[in-house]
Amino acid sequence: MELNGLRVSRETQDRLQHFATLFQKWAKTINLVAPSTLDDLWRRHIADSSQIFQIHPQPITWVDLGSGGGFPGVITAIYLAELQDGWVHLVESNHKKAAFLRTALRETNARGSVHAIRIEDAPAEIGGCDAISARALADLDGLIGYSAAWMLGKENCRGFFHKGRDYLREIDKARGRWEFDLLEHKSAVEQESVILEISNLRRLV
């Protein structure tokens, strides 16, 4: 099996397929993603989320903010299972969604844990990390604000944030409050979308 042009092992494929089955079952009673995207689950959500690990395929510690239906946090945790190292801390304050995330991690033997708390409270509960991810959560300025407790003064901590066609405006807005190094990774799934890699974060105001 290939996702985004990269080969996926049979073990990871089985885990992803089991996650997809679970997701479809839970999505009948919980609003995990926009209903209009459910019929395109593999491309719009699983393949899109897989890009995070494909960009940075290392056995590291992640914090996934606003994990919702598991994108990209559970998908990253599934890939880490193959490495038998690394960990994803999934932050989701909605308790029904948190229950789904716990079930998904357990049944796929993925490498992650769920923190059913507000994002603002997460730094006190979760220690240092190597990377932060978020998808469909907030604009870039807001995401950096959420991530600052982990990233400020930490040269090796990076943020990986999915963004759509309006990402240039979001970058300009964020640069009014922050300095950071930026890499733009073009999406292999959505033509006008990117994954923004943020590092060396400094506060301006």
Automatic annotation (TrEMBL):
<feature type="binding site">
    <location>
        <begin position="119"/>
        <end position="120"/>
    </location>
    <ligand>
        <name>S-adenosyl-L-methionine</name>
    </ligand>
</feature>
<comment type="function">
    <text>Specifically methylates the N7 position of guanine in position 527 of 16S rRNA.</text>
</comment>
<keyword id="KW-0808">Transferase</keyword>
<dbReference type="GO" id="GO:0005829">
    <property type="term" value="C:cytosol"/>
</dbReference>
<keyword id="KW-0489">Methyltransferase</keyword>
<dbReference type="Pfam" id="PF02527">
    <property type="entry name" value="GidB"/>
</dbReference>
<feature type="binding site">
    <location>
        <position position="135"/>
    </location>
    <ligand>
        <name>S-adenosyl-L-methionine</name>
    </ligand>
</feature>
<comment type="similarity">
    <text>Belongs to the methyltransferase superfamily. RNA methyltransferase RsmG family.</text>
</comment>
<dbReference type="InterPro" id="IPR029063">
    <property type="entry name" value="SAM-dependent_MTases_sf"/>
</dbReference>
<dbReference type="GO" id="GO:0070043">
    <property type="term" value="F:rRNA (guanine-N7-)-methyltransferase activity"/>
</dbReference>
<keyword id="KW-0698">rRNA processing</keyword>
<protein>
    <recommendedName>
        <fullName>Ribosomal RNA small subunit methyltransferase G</fullName>
        <ecNumber>2.1.1.170</ecNumber>
    </recommendedName>
</protein>
<keyword id="KW-0949">S-adenosyl-L-methionine</keyword>
<feature type="binding site">
    <location>
        <position position="71"/>
    </location>
    <ligand>
        <name>S-adenosyl-L-methionine</name>
    </ligand>
</feature>
<dbReference type="InterPro" id="IPR003682">
    <property type="entry name" value="rRNA_ssu_MeTfrase_G"/>
</dbReference>
<feature type="binding site">
    <location>
        <position position="66"/>
    </location>
    <ligand>
        <name>S-adenosyl-L-methionine</name>
    </ligand>
</feature>
<keyword id="KW-0963">Cytoplasm</keyword>
